[in-house]
Write a structure and sequence with these properties.
Layout: H1 2-27, E1 32-37, H2 42-46, H3 49-57, E2 61-66, E3 77-81, H4 84-91, H5 94-98, H6 107-124, H7 127-134, E4 142-146, H8 154-159, E5 163-167, H9 173-179, H10 190-195, H11 203-236, H12 243-247, E6 252-255, E7 271-273, H13 289-296, E8 302-306, H14 318-330, E9 334-338, E10 351-354, H15 359-362, E11 368-373, H16 377-385, E12 390-392, H17 399-409, E13 412-414, H18 422-434, H19 436-450, H20 456-470, H21 485-488, H22 491-529
Parallel strand pairs: 1-2, 1-4, 2-3, 4-5, 5-6, 6-7, 8-9, 8-11, 9-10, 11-12, 12-13
Bound molecules: 2-acetamido-2-deoxy-beta-D-glucopyranose.
2-acetamido-2-deoxy-beta-D-glucopyranose binds at residues 131, 135, 137-138.
């Protein structure tokens, strides 16, 4: 009898546990995430791959709109291939423009808007995208999207879901402003970034910085946003909300920024900085045989040279490429050069060219002495994590400011390729290899990257699931965002108090004048009497 009771109790217990687990599984926060990284730039993509994989491992289902789909199949991740954008760039000669800064003048801005427009349209009109947009039974819990110039933000409105904005580096002031983060025209001057100026700025630089700030804001307001709104209305319907409104709904912002590298800015609690080599694999993959042999057989050391995936060293001007070649020939090191063409004329014997290089793994090789780089943020992080000092030869976008930041921190030297000579280039490479201080600085920053309360990846996964659990993060929304311009700058208060002061002063003056006149009259009367 007792045994029967015990058995039935056990059965009951098991049943309860099974039921409970089932309910838990149903109520758990496994979500459907729509993720959008449409920018045709490899470095913009790789930063977020560990995040997609970690979220998929936690049971979330991800539909990833990406210009560079991952080659491997990952459980719970479905990719929609947006690489058609690369064809648009090719058609507009984009790589040629950014590989030659003398072709980069003011017309670059208008050209860029045309390119962004055409890429966005072609991507949104892809059959897979159209099916996603018009599928009435499709449901999502969260939109995670690259936050700059991205019309996919309208998907949040379409599916009625919260937004997490992402970026593979720091964002423009425009985005910070929409989060209610600190934005100062001099301290956070965008011109300083483009020109590679370091703080503190001189008086002239400050004047130009403020004027440029006004220009950038106008460019966004009167040029980019109307263009985005046109795209959104064309694709999502005439009644779609404008991008200026949608962007203010952003619940959180994840930035690949790290205080050991980037300047400090006061931000709201919904801006999460996860930078510091977060995209790097913790396990090294074996190198391709040819590269491994080349690196192993260079006991005196190897210079690794790559201008990244956007700037093509096959497209830079001939004299510059010739200068690189002649310098390398005179150096007592081997050189591994990421070069896009099959043939490199006049290639010296100590130089090996490779169309594609597994950079993260190459930089781990003990024979690498220095990395000559365009100073893309991901390249810099990879170098720092592997304690490799840099020679920076920036070309465009954030590269000049990254190079200035790098030189300022002291883990390398910043060169201007338009003023470069063979002697200077050679001298700089030798200095960075032979003077220990650059490598020591890289080690110091790598240690700071690792000295954190939780890793960048852990942080962004935790906050993503927070947004899923709470259906947003409006709790942290900075009230400044909703404050009208005149209230933020206290124009009404200053105006009112000013008016009162004016009225009071006016009254005091009037009364004084009256009294003065009375007194004068009195005195003159008195004198007349006398
Ligand atoms: C529409 O979405 C549902 C839910 O995700 C999916 O099962 C279905 O296959 C989709 N239909 C099309 C035509 O893509």
């Amino acid at each position: 009898m007792k045994l029967l009771k015990l058995t039935s109790m056990l059965c009951f217990r098991t049943l309860t546990i099974v039921l409970l687990t089932a309910t838990l599984a149903e109520n758990s926060d496994e979500a459907r995430i729509l993720a959008s990284v449409p920018t045709c730039s490899y470095s913009h993509q790789i930063v977020f791959r560990p995040l997609w994989k970690a979220l998929a491992r936690n049971g979330h289902e991800i539909v990833l709109l990406t210009a560079d789909p991952m080659e491997e199949e990952v459980e719970n991740i479905r990719q929609i291939d947006l690489s058609v954008g690369y064809d648009v760039m090719e058609r507009h000669g984009y790589n040629k423009i950014i590989s030659n800064s003398d072709e980069m003048d003011l017309s670059f801005f208008t050209k860029m808007s045309t390119i962004i427009h055409d890429i966005s349209m072609e991507q949104l009109l892809l059959p897979d995208m159209q099916r996603l947009i018009h599928n009435k039974s499709e449901k999502f819990d969260l939109l995670m999207l690259e936050i700059a110039f991205n019309p996919h933000i309208a998907l949040a409105e379409k599916f009625g879901i919260p937004i997490i904005g992402l970026y593979s580096m720091d964002v423009l002031n425009y985005i910070h402003n929409n989060m209610g983060n600190d934005v100062h025209p001099v301290l956070h001057a965008e011109l300083a970034n483009f020109a590679g100026w370091t703080q503190p700025l001189s008086f002239t630089q400050r004047i130009f910085a403020v004027l440029f700030n006004i220009l950038m804001n106008s460019y966004g307001e009167f040029f980019v946003n109307p263009m985005m709104n046109k795209i959104i209305q064309e694709v999502f319907g005439k009644n779609s909300r404008p991008i200026e409104e949608l962007i203010k709904e952003t619940d959180m912002l994840f930035l690949n920024v790290n205080p050991a590298l980037h300047p400090i800015r006061a931000v709201t609690p919904n801006t999460i900085m996860f930078g510091g080599g977060t995209h790097l694999d913790t396990v090294a993959k074996p190198l391709p045989e040819g590269i491994k042999k080349f690196l192993d057989s260079a006991p005196d050391g190897v210079i690794y040279f790559s201008l990244g995936s956007n700037v093509k060293s096959a497209l830079i001007r001939d004299e510059l490429r010739q200068l690189f070649l002649e310098t390398f020939e005179e150096l007592p090191y081997k050189v591994l050069w990421k070069f896009e063409n099959k043939e490199l004329p006049n290639k010296p014997d100590n130089v090996m060219i490779q169309k594609w290089v597994p950079q993260g793994d190459v930089l781990r090789h003990p024979n690498i002495k220095v990395f000559i780089t365009q100073c893309g943020l991901q390249s810099m992080e990879e170098a720092i994590m592997n304690h490799i000092p840099l020679v920076g030869v920036p070309f465009f976008a954030d590269q000049p400011s990254n190079a200035a930041m790098m030189a300022n921190k002291g883990f390398g030297i910043h060169l201007d390729h338009s003023k470069l000579t063979k002697e200077l280039f050679k001298e700089t490479i030798l200095e960075v290899i032979n003077n220990r201080k650059y490598k020591d600085k890289a080690i110091e920053i790598a240690d700071l990257f690792r000295d954190v309360e939780m890793t960048g990846l852990e942080k962004v996964v935790w906050w993503t699931e927070y947004v899923i659990r709470n259906k947003g993060a409006k709790l942290f929304r900075n009230p400044i965002i909703d404050l009208p311009f005149y209230q933020y700058y206290l124009l009404d208060v200053i105006g009112f108090v000013g008016l009162i002061c004016f009225i009071v002063s006016f009254g005091v003056i009037k009364i004084s004048l009256f009294l003065f006149r009375q007194a004068k009259q009195l005195i003159s009367k008195k004198t007349k009497k006398d």
